[in-house]
Design goal:
The protein is α+β, with helices and mostly antiparallel strands. It is built from 6 helices and 8 strands.
Length: 220
């Protein structure tokens, strides 16, 4: 399926997009990737956290001062996250010159496709760029943001390299946000050096997109 195909389906109505719009909040947990579905570069990673991401939880994280009510007004309903880390006691995976320490996939459920696009443009790209130099709720300083090229996903997408300053390290997160109907898929890789991991982040995003399709169509 090409991007043009997806655009045609969006305007004309398709079985896939109809199915996506029928996805329920309790099905999001089946869309995020499990360990066996991670790219081979992340084989052996352990689950760190998996949890529902309601609007109250989302409001406690990240930058800015959005409340749960603000998120509701933006059309966000809920979400689900599954994070993976290098096994305890193991050396971090080395993909020169990076030391990969974490990877994750996230699904957010919105009221509409337009709400997903606004989120990507404003709450993802603009909010990160506007908050360079500020401290997050987790105590990390946002040191820098770079917009990256992203291709190969079927609908609207954006990618960022985000640098966070920690007391003893710089963490570099390569993040891809993409839309599928009224769902927002997020894939990110965190490295313990200032490095961009676009190729691996894209592999993770494509695997997430495929799993979203399988679940929406009842095959996942």
């Amino acid at each position: 399926m090409t991007a043009d195909d997806m655009q045609g389906q969006t305007s004309g109505g398709s079985a896939l997009l109809d199915a996506v719009h029928s996805v329920l909040a309790n099905e999001l947990q089946y869309m995020v990737l499990n360990a066996s579905q991670l790219p081979e570069e992340l084989a052996g990673f352990d689950v760190l956290r998996e949890a529902d991401l309601d609007n109250e939880t989302m409001a406690k994280h990240g930058f800015g001062k959005k409340t749960a009510d603000d998120l509701v007004k933006l059309g966000r309903i809920t979400g689900y996250v599954r994070e993976f880390v290098v096994p305890q006691g193991a050396a971090t995976l080395e993909e020169e010159p990076a030391e990969i320490i974490m990877a994750a996939t996230v699904i957010h459920l919105f009221e509409s496709e337009d709400a997903v696009k606004r989120w990507i443009d404003d709450s993802f790209v603009r909010d990160f760029r506007d908050n360079v130099g500020k401290e997050s709720n987790e105590g990390q300083t946002l040191q820098g943001v770079e917009i990256l090229e992203v291709e190969g996903l079927h609908d609207y997408a954006a990618s960022l390299l985000v640098l966070h300053e920690m007391p003893d390290a710089i963490l570099a997160s390569t993040i891809i946000d993409f839309r599928m109907g009224n769902l927002l898929g997020v894939a990110y890789i965190v490295a313990k050096r200032d490095v961009t991991l676009s190729a691996l982040a894209k592999k993770l995003a494509v695997a997430l997109e495929q799993q979203m399709v399988r679940v929406a169509l009842g095959a996942g």
